[in-house]
Amino acid sequence: MIKSKFLILISALLVLVLASGCAQSSNPSGTASSNTASKADSAAGKTIAIAYSQGAGQTMDPHDAGDLTSASYSFALYDQLVTSATEEAGGKTVGRTDKVVPSLAESWKVSDDLKTYTFTLRDGAKFQSGKPVNADAVVYSFERVQTKGEGGSLYKLANIKSVTKIDDKTVEFKLGAPNHLFLKYLATFTFSIVDPSVAKGQPDDYLTQHSAGSGAFKLEKWDPATEAVFVANKDYWKGAPKVDKVIVKYVAEASNRELFLEKNEVDVALDIPAKDVESLSKKDNLTISSESSNRIVYLGMNANFKPFDQLKVRQAINYVIDQNKLIKDVAFGQASPLKSSISSKSPDFTSEGYEYSHNLDKAKQLIKEAGYEKGFTFELTVNSSTQDYEDIAVLLKSELEKIGVTLNINKVAPAQYRELINNKKAAAYLGKYTSLVNDPSYHYGFLLDSKGASNYTGYNSKVVDNLLAQANVEPDDAKRSELYKQVQKQVTADSPWAYLYESNLIVGISKDVKGYIFYPDEIIRFSSLYK
To answer: Rounded to whole angstroms, how far apart are CA atoms 181 and 484?
Structure first.
């Protein structure tokens, strides 16, 4: 949340975009027979089937995507001016979202005042329609993205003032102020370049179910309840993919994802439970990738709901949290403590100001001081597709009972979960978030700025807003770092969240599959996969 954005990147990253209105399949959970049938449709060895846990995506529109599944679709169907780099490390290829390389733009120049970027588009890049990728398409795409909820938020965060065509191969961007993350923002799926010859003049939601990109794959079909199917773009300007087809299956139950993987009915399975890493690692036909990412898991508390309007209540919840127990009993060691509102892998991280520990006596005292000496009852909203959430909720419920507080677990389907938190209707919820750009500016701009698109707790701090505004235009690295550290200390003091842990990204991969690249943003790039 990604909206999870990227909910909860949400879940942020991840959990951000409204569900599509496409027809529902009669088999929403995915079965062994449906996976087998889908793979049988293609030539052996030329199809990659991937089991997702969070749904089969919410949109094909890159400018409106927010969940990690839809983000994968955007990277399959579209290209961007620049893209994230890769490097060889430890004998494998890994993604570098902190470094960009040319893509549709072959080069660029930056003005001395750091406010003007001039991009030169490469020759030979074509949309799937056969039309060339030119300056008109770039200008159209950035005009379009401004009008979208998710894309518009990032457009504002990037501080783009204007996008102007100089000639067919040259585009000029002017910023309202210097932005040290501008190029990294351009590498995100949000700033995909759309073919105006396909999209222009269509209904506003046309790209929700159709594509108009220059990417390595074309959309064949999509049922948001069950699966999406992509076929290779044989005329892709970077060279045709090594597979003919990629099938994304929505398989809600982790046990089913693992079963399908073991039986070769899918080739890749996401969100493998941490408890199964050890046993699955012993399977001869599988590889388990467990990589430390910048995904955070937290408990959000909305101060617009009682009793969370009381700071001492929010602080008390933090003292109930036993991070070591959560890491041991829920994450099975595939996680690390969370000591700030950003990941410890984020630039400018500090745990300064974090003074919480598992202390039920302290929690009980704070609840009494807040006027709830006899305790209280609250509802914790949990996404039913994430087993970890339920496990966390059960542990918290047990601990809270010890201090006279009753936690009712509201376990809901992914679509209902997204609706509740997107509309800030959940008094408390469990969420996770992976920053697509590993930097405090991006992270806070979505999650904890008062106007952030993923600010699901409704957190509103003028102090934090002002600090973020200063940091976003500060060109000096050291000064900017200090501002972000002040933001972290203020957020920790205000306690809109209870910090839980930083979790690994765990993916199961068939031994037959090659080309899997781990990116810290947790988004799979289909184009590198092959058999």
So the answer is: 14
